[in-house]
Amino acid sequence: MTELHPRSGVAVSTVGLVHIYRAEGHDVAALSGVDLVVRPGEVVGLLGPSGAGKSTLLSLFAGLIRPSAGRIRVGDHDLGAMSPAELDRYRATDVGFLLQGAMRNLIPYLTPRENIAFAQRAALRAERPDVPAPAALVDELGLGDVAEATLRSLTPAQQQLTALGVALAARPGLLLADEPTSQLDHEARALVIGTLQRVSAEHGTTIIIVTHDPHVAEALPRTVTIRDGRVSGEGRRGEELSIVAVDGSLPLPQAIVAALPPGTLVRVQPTEHGWLLERDDIQTDQATGEPR
Ligand SMILES: Nc1ncnc2c1ncn2[C@@H]1O[C@H](COP(=O)(O)OP(=O)(O)OP(=O)(O)O)[C@@H](O)[C@H]1O
């Protein structure tokens, strides 16, 4: 069970990805056309307001739900086209999912090492050659001293790192993490994010992290903002950038939308350093389009 062939990260991509939840009486379009490319080994934060579709996107990447339309690829897998048995194997060996709240990922009466060993059963049944020894993974995550401790005696950061060990138990090429720093203090947050980045640097693991925490966003090299079921912006080290859509439209950063509400006329002027958005002071009547 030594690590003979450490897995490197996988590329993740979506084209026109749509997901509709069919609830009784009405449908909810959670994602309405997501185009996204994540390179192998990238660490990307998914940002966006509540209800934007972040968890839905994570569940699609995890193979837990199927897309209503569009394409979704993780490495060599076309997730929308896989059989239930192929998706079972994919979930067991190719992707790790860290659910929000450390203890939701853990069996409370097992130690950190035992939790990781338990999480490896499906990958071992699938005869994966590169599943790490539980004790080695425990050491790698800095949990060597508490490998055989009860979960109750661990600090919140150690519990979260144990949950991370469970998600990494099969050494997946893609790790998905839903709010991995919620309920952690500043120091614990830095430790968990630092550990995620170290895992990616050492093993090439592709990591996608849903977060509402601006400090986490600032620590990540790349963030993608989801709004109303679409990609509305990208960030680099905490700075938000807008993406020009194929139809030439440009979603404005949320802070600017407050100053330029829907219907506002703006002039786009070239300047020496780029482009200037200038608000036109003539107010138009939304219904007639005539000046008021
Ligand atoms: N199982 C479900 N059945 C019906 N609608 C759902 C279901 N899960 C999510 N939705 C709806 O889909 C939309 C997107 O939800 P989603 O949980 O993906 O957003 P989110 O960005 O993760 O939000 P949050 O940050 O609050 O977790 C919301 O309108 C939500 O109400």
TrEMBL record:
Domain annotation ABC transporter: ranges? 15-253
Any one Gene Ontology MF annotation carried by this entry is:
ATP binding
Entries under Pfam families matching the protein: ABC_tran (PF00005)
| Keywords for the protein's UniProt record, in alphabetical order | ATP-binding, Nucleotide-binding
Q: Which InterPro entries match?
A: AAA+_ATPase, ABC_transporter-like_ATP-bd, ABC_transpr_LolD-like, P-loop_NTPase
Which SMART domains does the annotation name? AAA
What is the superkingdom listed in this entry's lineage?
A: Bacteria
Name the residues that span the membrane: none
PANTHER family, sorted: ABC TRANSPORTER RELATED (PTHR24220:SF685), IMPORT ATP-BINDING PROTEIN (PTHR24220)
Task: Report the protein name in the record.
Answer: ABC transporter ATP-binding protein
